[in-house]
Design brief:
Shape: globular
Helix content: under 10%
CATH superfamily: TonB-dependent receptor, beta-barrel domain
Strand content: over 45%
Distance between the termini: 38 Å
Radius of gyration: 26 Å
Number of strands: 40
CATH topology: Maltoporin, Chain A
Number of domains: 1
Number of helices: 3
Structural class: mainly beta
CATH architecture: Beta Barrel
CATH class: Mainly Beta
Largest sheet: 30 strands, mixed
Length: 725
């Protein structure tokens, strides 16, 4: 389907897409006034990134940020919570230039808690320059939130209601007040809702079939805020302070049933029933102090000081009952785990930009990070009413990491040739140890390593409508802090998760060649090789199965991506993305030699209709093709959505109605057949829903405020994992 649309609509690409925005000049009366209206396309292909302009999108109504990412070009979210870009894992996800502080399932939970109505745009940066932290082997996804840009007192109020099996409520307020040289700003958002999640697992071990059904209901809520002030001393000097907070809770309940039988028999030998209660709370506060100097020549100097304080607490109660073939109770036990985590990150960062008269641009900067991570797991086991500490699953993990970095970029934009060269150096020192109740101490070897990360970009204009681009960069991905803790997280008596204190950072070298037509449509081919890729491995020990992060020796990725705007009529615009990639994984594991490769890909198609009198409609379709992820094989997944919008009160307010996952096709299936591990997992959730939202802009609408996004603590936060069940 996407292929035929690509051929058909490519013939209709007109000069409407020469500029990034469609500009309409409407003279009200001769020699008096000109009204300029700019409408951003939903998807923009820029020189160094792809931008998804969420603000104004009809289908943003009622969705969360995870759902926005799932329908963004080239983005894939796996069942393990890994966010992939162009078929590669190891993405750094940031919000307003700052990391989310989460990864894995916890990152998924956080993105689900963020309403799409608060997002302005999503930047997909597959090959960042040396100015960015080297963290993230497959690039950066930067989620930019809406900002109030006006003089005086102004703001935006929004509210939304989403209904599926359960309901989800959201409300938010954004305020900005600038009486003069001081600008005060802040926002607050509340989310409350529930969701049913279904999961089935078929696992084979020692000639037996473990047929597991895991229904779950989770009640979740988020309170978040942003508050700050900027002081404009004069046209050159600006100082500011900023505080961001996010307080997330999740109360989940699982009632699992595992039927155990011989692999070739339909008769059930025994049954395990497990009830899991896991109230979880994650809190984080980010503080930033910023100074900026800029002159009329375009030279700029900025300083950032950041502190991030993250804490999480989870009490996991696992009650098990075992029944024989006649469903007679044979025994019961209870596992109780209290998990606490406190992570603190301090950061100092400075950047300098100098523009010379000959068009040469020089950039340089330095940054230092200090990270302290303290994690404590206390486990208790109760058998037939007798409770005792579970020494094998209790431990304390302390981790320290210091990073120092410097970078320099030089570039120039010419009439025919644009180029940029950069080099970043990062030195990392790490130390960690884990202590269990037996008094055993496992030290993470003290290590210090220096990494050099060059980048190069070249763009050549053949003709006014034809451009060629070539880019290269090297990046790394450090393991998440908690992944290096050799903990045991018991899911049920037969399955668990474990950490790995010997994880090494992964390194990626990538190169991309791009052709751009009319500054809008583009086609690219890219190749990358990643060494020591951190990937989830499933292992089997008797009837016990567990997952553990592991370094894979090598991943090779080849990808082809096509971005095509579809300006069909003045009232009808569309966009098509088609990506195909091939992943090859090679590694020597304890279970044997891994040499697995497969093609994968995705397709995204959107259509926007302006119907006049403030009415708009939008429809979209996305699909991810079957692909390989380490030892796992992912089946394809697809979804279609549609919505409508009505503008009110001269555009100051709007009402949106959207139906998401129209045909209920967002169902994920993953299988594994490697070593002694064989099985299939299927996931379902409340993806099919109807959403209604309202937003209202009030106050003065005249002058832009300062746009301040980046702080210094960028790479460290992304590796913090907050427990969610």
């Amino acid at each position: 389907m996407c292929y035929f649309l690509l051929i058909y609509f490519s013939n209709h690409l007109t000069a409407q897409s020469i500029s990034e925005d469609s500009i309409i000049l409407d003279p009200v009366t001769p020699l008096k006034e000109i009204v300029v209206t700019a409408k951003q396309p939903l998807i923009e292909r820029q020189i160094d990134k792809v931008v998804v302009n969420v603000e104004g999108s009809v289908l943003a109504a009622g969705n969360n940020v995870l759902e926005l990412l799932q329908r963004s070009p080239g983005v894939l979210v796996t069942p393990q919570g890994a966010v992939m870009l162009e078929g590669k894992s190891g993405v750094m996800v940031m919000v307003d230039g700052k990391p989310t502080q989460l990864s894995g399932d916890q990152l998924v939970a956080f993105l689900q808690s963020m309403p799409a109505e608060t997002v302005s745009k999503i930047e997909l940066i597959a090959r960042p320059s040396s100015k960015y932290d080297a963290e993230g082997v497959s690039g950066i996804i930067n989620i930019r939130l809406k900002k109030n840009r006006n003089l005086g007192l102004n703001g935006t109020f929004s509210a939304g209601y989403t209904q599926s099996i359960h309901a989800r409520l959201r409300t938010g307020l954004n305020l900005n007040y600038r009486p003069g040289k001081v600008n005060f700003f802040g926002n607050a958002n509340l989310i409350d809702g529930a969701q049913s999640v279904g999961q089935t697992i078929e696992r084979f071990a020692d000639g037996k079939l473990y047929d597991q059904t895991n229904p779950m209901v989770e009640q979740f809520g988020t309170k978040s805020f942003k508050a700050g002030a900027d002081f404009f001393a004069d046209e050159r000097h600006t100082a500011g302070v900023l505080v961001l907070g996010n307080f997330y809770r999740n109360d989940s309940r699982k009632d699992n049933r595992t039927a155990i039988s011989n692999e070739n028999s339909v008769l059930i030998d025994s049954t395990l029933r497990s009830r899991i209660l896991a109230p979880t709370q994650n809190n984080r506060l980010t503080y930033n102090v910023n100074y900026r100097f800029s002159d009329t020549l375009g030279n700029e100097l900025t300083f950032d000081a950041d502190r991030i304080a993250f804490s999480s607490a989870c009490t996991n109660t696992l009650e098990n009952q075992r029944f024989d073939t006649g469903q007679v109770l044979q025994g019961k036990d209870v596992f109780l785990s209290d998990i606490g985590s406190d992570i603190t990150v301090w950061s100092l960062k400075a950047d300098y930009v100098k523009n010379r008269k000959n068009g040469l641009k020089l950039e340089s900067g330095a940054k230092v990070n200090w990270t302290n991570s303290n994690n404590d797991i206390q486990s208790t086991r109760e058998d037939d009413g007798i409770s005792q500490p579970d020494a094998g699953r209790s431990n304390r993990f302390d981790y320290r990491e210091n990073i120092a970095a410097v970078y320099a970029n030089i570039g120039k934009q010419g009439e025919k040739i644009n180029w940029q060269l950069g080099l970043r150096a990062e030195r990392t020192e790490v130390n960690g140890n884990s202590t269990d109740l037996y008094g055993n101490i496992l030290n993470n070897p003290d290590t210090a390593y220096l990494g050099l990360f060059p980048t190069a970009y070249l763009q050549y204009t053949l003709k006014p409508m034809h451009q060629l681009g070539l880019s290269y960069n090297r990046r790394l991905s450090r393991p998440a802090y908690q992944d290096m803790n050799p903990f045991v997280w018991q899911i049920d008596p037969y399955t668990s998760e474990r950490g790995n204190p010997y994880l090494r950072p992964a390194y990626t070298n990538s190169v991309e060649f791009t052709y751009t037509y009319k500054y809008a449509a583009s086609a690219s081919i890219a190749y990358s090789r990643t060494t020591d890729l951190v990937n989830t491995i499933a292992r089997q020990q008797g009837d016990q199965a567990y997952t553990q992060p592991q370094n894979l020796q090598q991943q090779d990725n080849i990808s082809v991506n096509i971005h095509l705007p579809l300006p069909i009529q003045s009232w009808w615009e569309g966009y098509l993305w088609l990506g195909i990639w091939h992943n090859q994984f090679k590694s020597q594991l304890d279970e044997g030699q891994l040499d697995a490769g497969a093609f994968g890909g995705g397709c995204y198609l959107s259509q926007q209709f302006k119907l006049g009198k403030g009415y708009e409609m939008e429809a979209s379709f996305w699909a991810q093709f079957p692909t390989q992820d380490g030892i796992f094989t992912n089946r394809g997944i697809a979804s279609a959505s549609a919505g409508a919008k009505k503008s009110l009160w001269n555009g100051k307010a709007s009402v949106k109605l959207a139906v998401n996952d129209l045909f209920g096709t967002q169902r994920w299936t993953q299988s594994v057949d490697f070593g002694s591990v064989r099985g299939t997992m299927r996931n379902t959730w409340e993806s099919q829903n109807i959403a209604l939202s309202f937003s209202w802009k009030f106050g003065n609408q005249n002058l832009k405020t300062r746009n301040r996004n980046n702080g210094g603590a960028t790479d460290a936060d992304e590796r913090i994992k907050a427990r969610k069940e």
